[in-house]
Records
---
Amino acid sequence: MTENSTPIATRERTVDGFVREFLRELNFGQGVDLSRASVNDQYLAMARTVRHYLMVRWLETLRRQGELQAKSVAYLSAEFLLGRQLDNALLASGLEDIVEEGLSSLGIDLATLRDAEVEPGLGNGGLGRLAACFIDSLATMNVPCIGYGIRYEYGIFQQTFVDGWQVEKPDDWLALGSPWEFPHPEAAVRVNFGGSVEQYQADDGVVRRRWVPGWSVLAVPYNYMVPGFENGRVNTLRLWSAQATHAFDLAIFNSGDYAEAVRAQTFAENITKVLYPEDSTPQGKELRLQQQYFFVAASLKNFIDEVLPEGFDLHNLPDRINFQLNDTHPVIAIPELMRILVDEKGWDWDDAWSVTSKCFAYTCHTLLPEALEVWPVDLLGRLLPRHLEIIYRINDAFLAELRQEYPDDELRVRRMSIIAEYPVRAVRMAYLATVAGTKVNGVAELHSQLLRDKVLNDFSEYYPDKFTNVTNGVTPRRFVRLANPALSGLITEAIGDGWVTDLDKLSGLEPLAEDAEFRRRFREIKLHNKHRIADVLATRDGTVVNPDTMFDVMVKRLHEYKRQTLKLLHIVSLYEQVTSGRLDIGSVTPRTFAFGAKAAPGYLLAKQIIGLINAVGRTINEDPALEGRLSVVFPANYNVTLAETLIPAADLSEQISLAGKEASGTGNMKFMLNGALTIGTDDGANVEIRRLVGDEHFFLFGLTEPEVEQLVDRGYHPSAYYETNASLRRALDLIASGAFSNGDRAVFEPIVSNLLHEDRFLALADFQAYIDAQARVDAAYADPEQWTRSAVLNVARGGFFSSDRSMRDYIDRIWHTPPVPPA
Ligand code: AZC
């Protein structure tokens, strides 16, 4: 690196240097002076200043990448749930101390600026947040990676409560400025849709087919920095925004039809207008398929035309890139690459297939059959006619192969067809990804096993080597180092700071679980974190929580399979026993039950459950007899930012999905690493958490996956549990009586009757086991020394759940992309 190419970063890493840079940004970037600057002005200037410090590293990373042409990962994901950027950028660049001091010399409080940042909520939940953790880890591990996704103008909706019911508001996250992005309108690429396919005679005399699109839009890239932790590497996240090819029709405008004049523009820009808020029940909406093809087509084109050097021989593409498909959303990339190679480059089919089938790998994030995306062929054919043809041809070849392998098993062949025939003819995207991908992975051991043995069983028999597991992980930078500064300080004091990039080092804390003084400090930190969230909730919502209680926390999307209702039945049962006088409040472990959950706007039962949680919460919180001992908090709009203060305060982590339904979970890992104990079923990554931490430090309950299957096969009758279990009956009767709805029995009737007559996720079957496990929790909590010992061991044994480890597994098992040496 020459001296000239490092203007800011190396020369001005001092408090004075930072202050100068900051004031310059405030004056020349925001156009205000300090005395008149709003908090938002200060935040924007601050963000840009920090950005400058990373810039040299970013440019250097790009330059070296161009030079080395090392094998990279392109992480294709319709969602990146990034969370706030400022703190992460400060941490990565090692500027925290300088900045804090510099700002305070100007009379500015860094915390106030932090709070001014609106988080980019460009994802629904697990899968989107996982993508954000993964790109953080790859940057930190010096692995070349480019993230490709969608720049939604509106992210995941803002949740508010009106009388306890969820009301969604648009998430206008760009309204106050977006200092972390770099738009490149000059690098926009055209993405086509619709039209038809024609046959023509090419120059070489061969008859070929090509797409004659009906309409197109521009994809404008917005680049984001993805800084590694203190290693000087800055990878890129490229999010695409849709723009019309022509702004508007001047002739129509002049004739006075203003709405018509901008129609095309509005239509095009709708593609990236808003994130679909369905998590795990995709709606087969045309706009959603448009979004998927839009970002994937732009990304492939960008990679081939811009990232690869000129003249690159695409036969070598598999040596240069892995396109990782984050769930089925980007799977349309497979026929798109075939189309590019066959139609645009003129390759023959077999050559194109041989390259394409080496470039992609697919991660599945679900076990719910309804979450596996399927696109009706009439819709797909209308929007992407050539891609549909290509998919049919891929399927023809695949079925022919299968018939050779299974000559007498036409039933199996049909089962495995990429094209489903019922209820409508449709493309099964997971099957397409499995046929074309080099690998298919689940996200926890149990999940991968169930994929192999059940969901994709035919495929795992046919392609035994394709199937693998990579257990999820979370980034310790954001979810420990930043989210829990007090605990981080204690850990660093005990074992040094190497754990931030090598989380296995946490095992060094094991002996300290036996050290009374260490445990005392650990407890003190937990209490401190409870006060911290109590302050946040008091300021944000005016909610009062008592830090001197057990924090029992369940935060995740609202879904029946996750069983928030089971948690609720526990609470209602406790309340019922106390108010009916069968249980003395003095003998109840004081608890604060905390929920956080958004429901998909169209998921009515989930929204009712939110209403019920709030109604029960209101009743309990208003009961003077319970004051200070039992309370329920449900802060609206649970998001990454709230998670960062809530999780470090938790004592008990609720991971109570029905066994065999939660693919992995990642919240469970964040809680563990922040010293909460888990009450959980044998599901997803809970299985691995329990194995690592040990049975004595984990509260296991409930049916196992095979038991669930047996029970369902035998015929599950939830009402039988209601009839034979008195406390369950009393709890359900209390809800049904209208006790939480001013006597109105109709309000929560659908929830009660669903539980009694359907209960798809066996909440009633697991009720008693859950109550018993909660009694074990109470007993354990009564001994603070033993509890803290377990909590410390949870941290010490949680190193496996770093997303750095997940990335190593992807690299070893799927990508084979070695890190490049640091600059
Ligand atoms: C989630 C899974 O539900 C969760 O168990 C997992 O930890 C997470 O992905 C990351 O792998 N799934 C989703 O968010 N969405 C879909 C469509 O599965």
Note: The longest strand covers residues 215-227.
---
Amino acid sequence: MAVLNIPTQAFPDQRPGTSGLRKKVTIFQQPHYLENFVQSIFEAIPDRMGKTLVLGGDGRFFNREAIQIILRMAAANGWGKVMVGRGGLFSTPAVSAVIRAHRAHGGIILSASHNPAGPDHDFGIKYNISNGGPAPEKITDAIWAGSKNIQSFRILDTADVDIDHEGHFQLGDMAVEVCDPVSDYAALMARIFDFDALRRLFAGPFRMRFDAMHAITGPYALEILENQLGAVPGTVINGIPLTDFGGGHPDPNLVYAKSLADALFAEDAPDFGAASDGDGDRNMILGRRFFVTPSDSLAVLAANATHIPAYQTGLKGIARSMPTSQAADVVAQQLGIPHYETPTGWKFFGNLLDAGKITFCGEESFGTGSDHVREKDGLWAVLAWLSIIAASGKSVADIVVQHWQDFGRHYYTRHDYENIPASAGEEIMKTLSVQLPILVGQTLAGRVVQKADDFAYTDPIDGSISSHQGIRLLFEDGARLIVRLSGTGTEGATVRIYHEHLEQDAARQQLDPQRILRDLITLGKDLTRIEQLTGRKAPTVIT
Ligand code: G6P
Ligand code: ZN
């Protein structure tokens, strides 16, 4: 088996975004496009020689082809061993768990997360480091720089290998282990949670529905919820990963997981509903006729963490991304533990987790997790909610309403304007930035602006600075209005406007967020001039 050194030409568009490189499948199918990026990843990891790499993806179209190419390139680039999930499958949190459990040097995850899959849709590739978390900017910048100068890539000259049966074999000088993608992850969950208590919950009248949305969490949810915890067969729906995710858009929110939401709002609704995204790191939590906003989910989990064996002794601290509501901060203050505000992107939690500063972290974008891995973890969040339901004997609605009474309710809504022209996105941010200096002290939407800035973050562990992370207006009454450009889209630009208002009065805590936040919503539209600049009268997605 010869190592081929194949000349290539650089592509100018291989800059990794919030979560690696995401493009249309047709772009990845261009000759050498994937190979160039993979070579650039490997060269950004100079100490890879002889080390172990974990490899797998969410099963979307092009996953299998990409796995074969990456295996042959890994063998030609000095890796000692690759652990690949059977069928080329691994969820994102499972890769993180496997990297940590096997002390691997890193991992490659093939996914475009919640973006649709299929020949005309999206593919993606990201690198995770030895702590199990997304590569920090130092590495993604090196990958990008490498991709612009690449002249050749290395690949083993060999036929496709069998990734559908567990076992070990050699590929040139490199060992390959095809492993069960679920077992390490399931074992980790069994160590964190009290599976006996959850079995007792499912043995009673409690019913749940988990929508895997035809994506990667199906095998994990079937094994853990139905096989190990005894949930009735049929609890997991859409549980077989399909290469096109069944034509759907596996983003667990009220728009894209509408059929699940409808089922939970029906007369005969189950007690609990949950969904995950394409690669299994996001989660949506529903009770019977009740939606839990992700910011509240983080706060509720933090307030009730001691019900879960792994967190029995309490949390070290909590972190949330800047646009995530301040609900978790209030919990941290009452628990007397530190809280941190980071830019959007799970990678910013990595240093805080590694340094033992925080135990829980979460984002408004349907991400919740803990120090058990270095990615957000959809099924972990589901098991955490189940644990709190089992321990308290209460419904989801009762748990959350009680939480609001204890801590105040942070009314919250995010309005997305998806796929607008990139130039309009820039213009909106500029329109807002130039107004910042004159906004402080003004009364807008009935509130006084206390602070108006472009969020910048200094990492408390390594001192690195990340600027331009979103524009924030902080009001004297605790309300916030935030505007930022999404870093994860593959077409045009997406503007996200986040609205938040704190209500302490229990009598006013169960109203419609769109109504309570109406004045902030109008203000956001006015200040960004979004209608004039895009012609859009309404957001494409409201969460
Ligand atoms: C991914 C990242 C998250 C991030 C989310 C939204 O899921 O892992 O950390 O919050 O994308 O990012 P965006 O830039 O699109 O708002
Ligand atoms: Zn995801």
Note: The chain has three domains: 3-181, 185-407, 409-542.
